[in-house]
Amino acid sequence: MALIFVDTANLDEIREAAAWGVLDGVTTNPTLMFKAGTANRKEQTLKIVDIVQGSVSAEVISTDAPGMIEEAREILSWSDHVYVKIPTIPEGLKAMREISSWPNGRINATLIFSANQAFLAAKAGASYASIFLGRLDDAGLDGMEVVRQTRQVFDNYGFGCAVLAASIRNTVHVTQALLAGADILTMPFPVLKTMMHSPFTDIGLQRFLDDWAKISAK
Ligand code: G3P
Q: How would you label 63-77 residue by residue, b for 16+ Cβ within 10 Å and e otherwise?
């Protein structure tokens, strides 16, 4: 089963997506908190948890391992639904190694741009490897190829780490990530909305309703 997350800290968007009954979780980051207009990471994260009752990722701000570990201890204590996002840099790997030894060490390794980084994050004990495929595409590279390679590497060696397709820009990315075997897809709310849309569905539904109205009026 592939999981659907929305990549936003906007509560209205999260409420609407959750109401559709297909939302499994939410990913946030400092930029998304900024867009939602809040610097209260704990309060916003707990409001999100309250809505989705599923996996919610909140990111550390520290860039050194001791600082990340201290922040992770606090973030993970907020709720059993919370995953701590750790950047995939050398200090981040040190932090992941330590945090993953805790009973509640749920880690979302973030800012991954290669299968090698994903491999290292998995070795360090991450639960999710977040591949920023859209940013690779923006730079003229093939982000989906990194998703495919990571899937293959994790399967070759039996890593339990989930392949998380992140930085999704459009519905084509969604289909491609599903075909590439991503375990989790996190997308902006407008992309989730667009997944539901086909003019043929609207036209077809209207025709059914019109024909039914005609026959009922007889
Ligand atoms: O979850 C990762 C995501 O927030 C990055 O997306 O759109 O900033 O490249 P974007």
A: eebeebbebbeebbe
